[in-house]
Amino acid sequence: MKRKQLKSPVFQGRRLFLMLALLVVIGGLMLRAAWLEIFQQEWLQQQADKRQMRVVTVPAYRGMITDRNGDPMAISSPVSSLWCNPQDFLRAREDLRHQAAQVLGEPPPAAAKPALLDAYNAARGGREVAAEKLAKLEAGLQHIEQELELKPGELSTKLAQASDKQFFYLGRQLSLETAQSILDLDLPGVAATREYRRYYPLAETAGHVVGMTNIDGTGIEGIEKAQNDLLAGKNGKTRVVRDAKGKLVESVISVEEMQPGQNLQLSIDRRIQYLAYKELKTQVSLLNAKAGSLVVLDAHNGEILAMANVPSFNPNNRKELEPYLYRNRAVTDKSEPGSTIKPLTIAAALEARAIGAEVEINTSPGQINFGKYSVKDPKDYGSITLPTLLAKSSNVGASRVALLMNARDQWMFLSRVGFGSVPNAGFSGETAGLLTNYTQWGKVDRASHGYGYGLSSSLLQIAHAYAPFAANGVFMPTSIYKLNKLDVGQQVMSPDTVRAVLRMMEAVVQDGGTGEKAMVDGYRVAGKTGTAYKYIDGQYRNDRYLTSFIGVAPASRPRLVVAVQIDEPKTDDSGGRAAAPVFSKVMAEALRLLDVPPDNLPSVAQQPTAPAPAPAQPPLPAIPSTTPTAGGAT
Fold first, then answer.
1. How far is the CA of 534 from the CAs of 109, 338, 435, 447, 545, in angstroms?
2. Is the pTM of this model over 0.90?
3. Residue tagged active-site, from 339, 394, 456, 548
4. Catalytic site residue 251?
5. pLDDT category, 537, cuts 50, 70, 90?
């Protein structure tokens, strides 16, 4: 007996409806996928790239600065700069605080339903995880503050102040190890950028010469500023892939090649530079002086072998630097040269044939009156020779020599040796000093120019003006960069004049001269002391002055020019006592380092190189005085 088949109570059309609906959904998805694959592929790829691929800047490696021997004076080392998106960071921090502070209420009883117990345990676990993450984030902030030497809570305050921004530097130019230790904390929104930091091996010893860069790697002082375009190079760009946390996964393609900066070789000899700075700093401290400067020139080619200033600054440590320390006094500060100009006055007169090398100058009665002004010597020296004039530093004698010249001849000679012109040695901010046109000079100006007042120059300028005495009368362009080939110099005085003035300048360093302390064992030295009173508020101040000594050595075959200037020494108020000792020490060591043979050893002493004596001339008559002189003694 067959069983009777019962019909299903389910509506037969429902099954068909569901199947059709399912087919429609599947078909729609397939059509959408086909549409995206065929017509939207490029747009989707671009959107994905925007979220994963970035074009990042590849910082250029800044060129290295070296001394003349190739030893580094400024180099770049890789560092990291940490940054974050303050909005993302603060939002993540606030979410963690909210989750960690979530109130769960009383736990359900043990007999409660498993689903209720599971929900409560999950909520409690989430709160504990949030609290752990929050503690890790706060500890990370404290770690960053410690690494960056910030006060507790200072970083949080800065982030709150930058809450409306999407980019904020947590720290710049951190060591790679420090940056990585912070990145390992895996703080939300924190990432790093590779940069370079400038390092200066000579520190404060060559701070004014090399200068420094700012935190963005742009030169702001010294050679770093003067040659920034050459040293900086050009940043590149590359396309990279980053993960969801912003970390670099791979570099895809270089968009623009990075061009590293060019290396730069200076004329500085770091051995002489260190010695010069050490001796100058010691003397400035010993004399309780306001400041000091020193320049060492190779007179044969015009290269600057050393340039030091005190006070100086350490470009590696900028936290306590003051802007006034940045000034390179040797090239930017101008002052009246005082008695250091007297050898140039005599050289100008010899070149103009206003006097002969063996002439005697009548300095009686020890002063020249120009109306209510006068030029004075410490005492009446009477009739003196030119070597004695320099040895005693007679202002009256130098004034009489200057007045024997035509004003145009005096002006042209000073112009030829660099007065009134920028040295163009390669520094930014070089001063031209002051040398007015001779058509504006009266007798007072001519006389005062003869002993170093009424005109001004930098220490580099006056040192450069002495260079022809060490180069057989040739005035070579000066340079802070090492020269690959010798520049063409200008003959500014005859070799006969050079030999004559060198002989006279040697008398300054002998017993009884004002520059005895400039003597160098084993070498003949020719130089001149100087003391120039400062012109302040319309008058010369007897208690405010600059002392200096400039000389060349060895006198028989000169190689180096060393110029030393001490600003407002509290003791030893003359160039012979304040500046000459520094000259002696620096010149002695520089000659030794350069292997310059001695010319004044007892067993191999050389004869003076002065020309044959000219017929003696009678003393010059006294010059009538009718106009006032520039104030100030030397």
1. 94, 10, 17, 18, 5
2. no
3. 339
4. no
5. confident
